[in-house]
Specification:
With 200 residues, this protein is mainly α. It has helices at 2-16, 34-39, 45-61, 65-85, 93-109, 116-135, 142-172, 174-197.
């Protein structure tokens, strides 16, 4: 089992070290239509890690958090996206996105089981930055609305992937599962530091 953990950590590290995948919101590519909106979040390491960690965190807390935490993120992200579309500035968007990866990863790595309200508030805060980054690139037109629907659904899919990851890890067993979960959170936090400092 220890060798499987090493293989898992190596795979995550390889993804982390791929600099071309760092940001989903580079301003490159089409930003109109559902397909572009759906694919956009899947092209950036920052968004993928944060969304999967939201799902893992929700699973880690358990109970109502399994649906409240991811739903809060998607709902507040829509608000952030609307602010971005309207051109309302929010400071430190890129830093906020990188910090979301660091904080979510660290919370999972440390095995912190926050109350559902606090976890939902935390992910909601980070969701504003993620939504604003996507929304600021969208045109305020029908194509933009389809694009928004695409990136919101892709985000929900990534949350589900995180929940599924939490479920699969839990099946490994209590002690080993906790080790793998914490390792994944730690690697995500390290990736977030790399994103924040510009190393990746």
């Amino acid at each position: 089992m220890f060798s499987k953990s090493i293989k898992f950590n190596a795979a995550v590290a390889a993804i982390v070290l791929a600099p071309s995948l760092a940001f989903a919101h580079t301003g490159v590519g089409e930003t109109v239509g559902f397909v572009h909106g759906f694919s956009h979040p899947l092209s950036g390491l920052d968004h993928i890690l944060a969304m999967v960690m939201v799902g893992v965190l929700a699973w880690q807390i358990g109970g109502r958090a399994v649906w409240i935490v991811p739903t809060t993120f998607v709902a507040v992200m829509a608000v952030g996206g609307a602010l971005g579309m309207m051109g309302i500035a929010i400071p430190f968007v890129e830093a906020g996105i990188a910090l979301s990866v660091i904080v979510l990863g660290a919370v999972i790595a440390l095995g912190i089981r926050a109350p559902v309200a606090i976890a939902a508030g935390m992910v909601g805060l980070f969701a504003i930055f993620h939504g604003h980054a996507h929304g600021s690139e969208m045109p305020a037109a029908a194509g933009g609305i389809a694009y928004a629907a695409g990136f919101m659904i892709a985000t929900a899919v990534l949350h589900i992937a995180g929940l599924a990851l939490g479920f699969v890890i839990a099946k490994v067993g209590d002690a080993r599962g906790a080790f793998v979960t914490r390792s994944a959170g730690g690697l995500a936090a390290l990736a977030g530091v790399g994103l924040l400092t510009g190393l990746i």
